[in-house]
Specification:
Layout (H helix, E strand, L loop, with lengths): L1 H12 L5 H8 L3 H7 L3 H13 L2 H10 L5 H24 L14 H13 L14 H16 L11 H10 L8 H6 L3 H6 L1
Helix pairs in contact: 1-2, 1-4, 2-3, 5-6, 5-7, 6-8, 6-9, 7-8
Length: 195
């Protein structure tokens, strides 16, 4: 209850959130918090660890593997990743993601490669010759896309439509029979002025 009440405050205010604000949001007396946590730092550490915990996301990614079609697997994975990074993004923005030395399994350095591997595993059964990149690279790209999307921005933008993300990931950015050489033969005004 304390952790759930603290996370939104922590995402908005960062470590400057006061114990009085946390107690009010949780509907408890301020002293009650210190029966559960030794100090404010202990509570904030527990909040960051809770937010970073990707156990549910890993389960959702494993469930995504049950879909027959790769597009369906990646769409389900996109939903899971979006939910995770929407929760974690504000904490990334506040640079609060050091859960402390007592929780080494709950660090971005540990979690991101595991999420990437879980997405790479969704490509199981796809012949390597039909992929333009390794499943590991595709997994990393997919995870990083949602990680970037989860970062709060100063301008509001609509979430990327997951079916379109999946289509571009699987088909590439070029339409039909277009090739990279076609792009060089017909530079756009934007590309011409950017050089």
């Amino acid at each position: 209850m304390l952790v759930d009440a603290t996370l939104p405050l922590l995402a908005r205010r960062g470590p400057t959130v006061t114990t009085a604000e946390i107690a009010a949001a949780a509907g408890v007396a301020e002293g009650t918090m210190f029966r559960v946590f030794p100090d404010k730092a202990g509570l904030l550490e527990a909040c960051v660890a809770h937010a970073l915990c990707a156990d549910d996301t890993h389960r959702q990614l494993a469930d995504a593997a049950r879909h027959d079609q790769l597009e369906e697997r990646l769409a389900a994975a996109g939903d899971a990743l979006r939910a995770y990074f929407t929760r974690v993004g504000p904490l990334l923005d506040r640079r609060l993601l050091d859960p402390g030395p007592t929780l080494p399994d709950h660090t971005p350095e540990r979690i991101l490669p595991l999420l990437s591997q879980s997405v790479a595993d969704l490509f199981a059964g796809v012949p390597a010759a039909s992929l333009r990149a390794t499943p590991e690279l595709l997994g990393r790209l997919y995870v990083l896309l949602f990680a970037a999307e989860g970062m709060p921005t100063r301008t509001a933008s609509a979430p990327l439509p997951i079916p379109e993300v999946v289509r571009v990931l699987l088909s590439g950015a070029l339409a039909g029979d277009a090739s990279h050489s076609d792009l060089d033969a017909h530079p756009t005004t934007e590309r011409s002025t950017a050089r």
